[in-house]
Amino acid sequence: MADSTSAMPASLQVYRYRAGADRVEAVIGTLEPDFPQEDLVIHATEALERETFMCYAVSQPDDFVADELCFVPQGDRCDILSIRTNGWERHHGDHRRSLVEILNNIAAAVACGKLRILDTNEVSSEVELGRTVVEYAIGDTNELQRAREAVDDVLKQAGLDDIHRQRTILCISEAVTNMLLHGGGRGQMVVRRLGDRLRFIVADEGPGLNFLNWIEPPSKGGQASMGYGYKIILDYLDAVALHTGPGGTTLLLDRLIN
Amino acid sequence: MLRTSIAQGPAPTVYLAGEMDLDCADTLREAVTEAARGAQMVALDFAGVEFIDSSGTGIFVRLALDLKSQGTPLVARNLSPAVRGVFDMLRVRELVGDEVFPD
Question: What is the pLDDT of residues A140-159, one digit of tens each?
């Protein structure tokens, strides 16, 4: 496998197994041909029956290559995260984050329920929940500050304390920045009120997340992309949901309010 | 938006004010490049920075590493709480070296 994959970029793909089905479906990315369906079904079924997160190393052609399959039971379904690093431990030896660390952070966030991966149908219904508070389009980096100010106004009106307000603003800035850099350069930010929370929806119609993007020089201005945005988002927000595919990327960022 | 002003001298200080995000790269790099011309070192004063995200942090890290490789050390002073919190979370000290934070 090392020879056939060594030229491939690192990747994170997400599959889903629904209890009782005879196969898994791809939610992010495509099904890799060298993972037999029957094996995925067996392991997903085991994870569901044991109600336990399970992780397997698939191949280790070199010591630091961490190809992993993580099975995350979630009620009547099991999300399967396939992490392929193909030797990309640290890019160019500079300050950018280890790709392995980024992908493992995401897998851990799914495993502990902080991050939900949504399919097309789920994201369509989730973005309709609640009522819209603020909505506008963003198409340039000089609009980042305006977006943050709009979020600040909403959070102040909701009575959020200073620390959580600042952290939320930081997260929205990270999400909008990711959209501008990797989501086709433009998109939409919507704030909705749902019961006990504010939901910030950052959506684009770009090419979908390519996890390699995070450590490649971004297109605008040549700044280093540290790959930290998702770490901040996952650390600081109460719940996150992600849908990504060829039609674009949607992030749902939830902040609980009193 | 990021605003800059420079106090010239053999060890010039670039005073930063406003917000450091993806949009600040050109402003920050131009100011630091101007200050570093003929200087033995450059100080960045963060007292007026009200907001910084990972993009603004990445731009600072890149500048610090570039200046270090050119033999003109950069130091960061007067980190506001907002900046300090993000730098700590992103382990900036490990990336650029303790000597960048003499305070």
Answer: 988 999 999 999 999 999 99
Return the closest-CA partner of residue A148 out of A126, A128, A178, A177. A177
| Domain tally, chain B | 1
Of A141, A220, A226, the CB nearest to B57: A226
Residues A104 and A126 in one domain: no
Which residue does chain B place closest to A221, by CA atoms? B25
Query: A90, A98, A155, A170: which to substitute to probe chain B, counting the most B Cβ within 10 Å?
Result: A170
Q: Flag if A174 and B95 touch (Cβ within 8 Å).
A: no
Domain CATH for B18:
3.30.750.24
Domain containing A150 equals 120-256
Q: At what angle do helices A162-182 and B54-69 cross, to 10 degrees?
A: 70
Instruction: Give residue A36's pLDDT.
Output: 80
What CATH code is carried by the domain that includes residue A164?
A: 3.30.565.10
* CA-based R_g, chain B, Å: 12
How many domains are contained in chain A?
2
- A–B: how many Cβ contacts below 8 A? 71
Give how far Cα A204 sits from Cα of A95, A138, A180, A190, Å: 28, 10, 9, 11
At A86 the pLDDT is 61
* pLDDT above 50: residue A45: yes
| Residue of chain B whose Cα is closest to the Cα of A177 | B22
Chain A residues close to B59, C-beta within 8 Å: 223-224
pTM: 0.84
Determine the Cα–Cα distance for residues A226 and A239; give it in Å rounded to an integer. 22
Per-residue confidence (pLDDT) for residue A56, from 0 to 100: 83
Cβ-contact A202, A192 below 8 angstroms: no
The ipTM is 0.87
The CATH number given to whatever domain includes residue A91 is 3.30.450
Domain that holds residue B64: 2-100
